[in-house]
Amino acid sequence: MTDRTERDCLSRVAGASPILRVLSAAGAGPRNRCDGMVRGGRVAINGRVVRDPQARADPFRDRITLDGRALPLDNACRYLVLNKPYGVLCAFTDPKERPTLADFVDVPDVYAAGRLDFDSEGLLLLTSDGWLIHRVGHPRYQHPKTYLAQVERVPGAEALNALRQGVLVKDYRTARARVELLPDEPQLPPRPVPIRYRKNVPTAWVRLKLTEGRKRQVRRMTAAVGHPTLRLVRVGIGPLALGDLEPGAWRDLTVEELGAMRDMLRRPTRR
Question: Is 117 an active-site residue?
Answer without folding.
Answer: yes
